[in-house]
Amino acid sequence: MVQRSNFRSSPELDYEGWRDALRPQWGRYSPVAMEPKAFTGRAPRAKPYGLAAIDLSCNAHRVERTQQDVRLDRVDHYFVFLQVAGGSTIIQNDQAVRLAVGDAVLVDLARPVTYVAEDGCGQWISLQLPRRSLVSHLGFDPRGGARLCSEAPAKRLLFDLVGDADAGDGSAFSSTHSYLQMAVYDLIGALVAPSDPGPVLRQTDKLFARIGGVIKDGFADPDFDPCAVAAKTGISLRYVQKLFTARGSITCCFAIRKGPSSLTILPLGLRISMLPLP
């Protein structure tokens, strides 16, 4: 990965400055086992395609986010941690993942995490992913500490897409950014998708049943549409589509059969259709 142009030009930060740069969006972290006066680091922010990101480096061998840190700041995001230079080990949920240049790991900010840098140096890009957005896109709640390297082409594309993005402040948001954001989420989905979808389907069975109940209650309303289904169940329309796709329906289409509480789901088109059947 090519180092972003604004990284070397960004100012070096002392111990407190580096921690303060991370705290608003990335939470509380503490370099440990080193004198604060000896600490140096960089943390320029970026907005690739409108997504929050930060380029990181520091000379600390070990950085921790403790359970107390989690309780104090209540930051509730995931982020993808991309290794740009050096090597490191990420420890979360009793998993220790070693990263070389080109590797990545998914980190859950609602859980404690420890970063151990080889030789006390390294460079990373941290890409923030709001929990609800990621869960809605994937269709399940991924476990923090998962290495993103199962699909080499997807991992390489993710690095290229994020690393080559303009490192500006994101103020010039273009009409293409929403599509590129979806590409980032799709690549992450390819890297964290479980090999056995069975447990994920079981986790969402209750939600899927609730969606069926919402449709049954509202299909007679002429203003009832796919967005209303998503809003009433508190999830995104894309997640609704994923739930149906995972269960063998190629689209999110509903047909309500008149009779004793029966619901038939049919792949009838490219949108949710409410069709009373005889």
Give a description of the structure.
By secondary structure, the protein is of the alpha+beta class. The chain has 2 domains: 5-192, Jelly Rolls; 199-277. Helix content is 35%, strand content 27%. Strands 1, 2, 3, 4, 5, 6, 7, 8, 9 and 10 form a 10-stranded antiparallel beta sheet that branches. A 3-stranded mixed beta sheet has the order 12-11-13, covered by helices on one side. Strand 6 and strand 7 (95-99) form a beta hairpin. The radius of gyration is 22 Å and the shape is elongated. The protein starts with a helix and ends with a strand. The model is unreliable at 254-278 (pLDDT under 50).
Number of domains: 2
The CATH topology of the largest domain is given as Jelly Rolls
Return residue spans where pLDDT drops below 50 for at least 5 consecutive residues.
254-278
Strand fraction band? Answer: 25-35%
Helix content: 25-40%
| Overall number of strands | 13
User: Which secondary-structure class do the elements indicate?
Assistant: alpha+beta
Task: Note the overall shape.
Answer: elongated
Mean pLDDT: 77
Number of helices: 10
CATH superfamily of the largest domain: Jelly Rolls
- CATH class term of the largest domain: Mainly Beta
Per CATH, the architecture of the largest domain is Sandwich
Structural topology:
Elements: H1 5-9, H2 15-26, E1 30-32, E2 41-42, E3 45-46, E4 53-58, E5 62-65, H3 67-73, E6 77-92, E7 95-99, E8 104-108, E9 113-130, H4 131-138, E10 146-147, H5 152-163, H6 177-192, H7 198-203, H8 205-218, H9 226-233, H10 237-246, E11 254-257, E12 262-265, E13 274-277
Parallel strand pairs: 11-13
Antiparallel strand pairs: 1-5, 2-4, 3-4, 4-9, 5-9, 6-7, 6-8, 6-9, 8-10, 11-12
Helix pairs in contact: 4-10, 5-6, 8-9
